[in-house]
Amino acid sequence: MAESIFITGTDTGVGKTHVLCELLRTLRSSGTNTVGFKPVECGRDRSDSRAILSVCEGTGITLEDINPVYFETPVAPQAAAEIEGPKWELDSVLEAFDDLKSRFDAVIVEGAGGWLVPIESGFSVADLAGSLQLPVVVVAANRLGVLNHTLLTVNQIERDGLDCRTVILNDLADGEPDESTASNEAVLRDQLDCPLLRFQFSQSGLDLFG
Fold first, then answer.
1. Would you say residue 49 has pLDDT above 70?
2. What is residue 51's predicted lDDT score, i.e. its pLDDT?
3. 116 in a domain, yes or no?
4. Distance CA 142, CA 145 (A)
5. What total number of domains does the chain contain?
6. pLDDT at residue 129 greater than cutoff 70
7. Cβ-based neighbour number of residue 148 at 10 Å
8. Mean per-residue pLDDT, 89-110
9. Bridge partners of 6?
10. What does the alpha-carbon distance between residue 139 and residue 75 come to, in Å, rounded to a whole number?
11. Does 103 map to a domain?
């Protein structure tokens, strides 16, 4: 059975939104009433939230339901707030999440950037995940450096007292294979205590709950 989860990444641009959308497509095509939630997004075209909305067509939700806090400036939320003014209110975001949870069987939440990205002074993506108390899925790009980035992220999630449910090793569409690409999966499987799933960017659909 599907459950609500929190998707984070080892970095920005590792494919979190794409993974979320493919997971949503799989769940919705199987009859599970589920929705995506991007609490905060930074960037001029709001493309991540729009991509999530397109997968949830016909559910009656709006862009603002999916993405309650939006900054145009493409930097970390704390830095964007210093430019555009504060917009983040945790209580409002938690209310938006609870509203979606009351209307759907599962809510798939996507954080901004990586695990320790600051949303505001003294409050990070990790704190948001802790407030929601959801199991965490880590998306990692299969390229040189992924071993350190992934192990640091997973270790910090566990230190923060949350359940790292799965690591998704994502072969990016625009990523040039390097000498590490073929070996990263085996090394991570040896080092991690949680499951690891290899995912091709061109792959259609993603099943985490089968």
1. yes
2. 97
3. yes
4. 9
5. 1
6. yes
7. 10
8. 98
9. 109, 136
10. 20
11. yes
Q: What is the DSSP letter of 1?
A: -
Partnered with residue 198 across adjacent β-strands are 169
In a domain, 208, yes or no: no
Catalytic residues: 38
Tokens 């108390």 belong to 133
Residue 158 has a CB neighbour count (10 Å cut-off) of 14
What tens digit of pLDDT does each residue of 136-189 get? 999 999 999 999 999 999 999 999 999 999 999 999 766 667 889 999 999 999
Residue type, 199: F
- The structure tokens 């007292």 sit at 161
Residue 86, Cβ neighbours under 10 Å: how many? Answer: 12
Buried b / exposed e across 97-113, counting CB within 10 Å, b at 16+?
beebeeebebbbbbbbb
Q: What CATH number is given to the structural domain containing 84?
A: 3.40.50.300
Q: Is 57 exposed, middle or buried (0-12, 13-18, 19+ CB in 10 A)?
A: exposed
Question: Whole domain around residue 48: which residue ranges?
Answer: 5-200
Phi, psi of 170 (to 5 degrees): -100, 120
Q: Structure tokens of 91?
A: 């209580």
Q: What span, in angstroms and rounded, lies between the C-alpha atoms of 105 and 35?
A: 8
pLDDT over 70 (residue 125): yes
DSSP structural state of residue 177: P
Encoding tokens for residue 100? 């979606």
Q: Are residues 188 and 196 in contact, defined by beta-carbon separation less than 8 angstroms? A: yes
Q: Higher confidence at residue 28 or residue 179? A: 28
| 36 vs 52: CA distance, rounded Å | 6
Helix residue spans in 160-206 (DSSP H): 181-191
